[in-house]
UniProtKB/TrEMBL annotation:
Protein's UniProt name: KCMB1 protein
Coiled-coil annotated residue ranges, if any: none
Statement: the UniProt record of this protein carries the keyword Ion transport: yes
Transmembrane segments: 20-43, 166-187
A GO-annotated cellular component: voltage-gated potassium channel complex
Membrane topology according to the record: Multi-pass membrane protein
Amino acid sequence: MLGKKLVTAQKRGETRALCLGLGMVACSMMMYFFIGITIVPFYTKSVWTTETVCKVLKANIKDKVFCPNSKGSEDEEIFPYPCLQVWVNLTASGQEVMLYETEDTLERNPKCSYVPDKMENSKEVKARIETIASNFKKYQTFPCYYDPGGTQTNVILSRLYPAKGLLFAFLWPTLMFTGGCLIIVLVKISQYVSVLSAGQ
């Protein structure tokens, strides 16, 4: 009687462990799919792939410009902010080009090197842009990214999704997938050993 209860408990435990392993594998596949349709396209479409050194030539703050709250939005929510323009000397080619913060900055407003998020306090936005401009004047040389194919003549300060970030995004679903497969394998091994023990 006790042996039957132990066998029943063991089977329940194996079933739960097997469901856990399959659930982890399914969740990891969903995460892979989500990363594949969101992050990977942005990474592959970016043409600023080669890192080089940029030297600041000038960093000026122009008059206030207006920028939509979100690209392609139908509403008329716009906010003014000082337009920071940073021109750098590209070490790779020796050209004088305009610097943008990320790929998204160029799409949102090609006239400005930095586009702040929408804030209610305009003084805070102005102070932040002035701080960024002073930092560029203080640190004259820094790494940047340019387009080796020549499609884009400008450069960006940092990529939205660098290679390290992409690998880090794939790390967690890979660990979950590996853990789920390991649980399934261990359950199958346990079942195989139980069958051999019952046969003996």
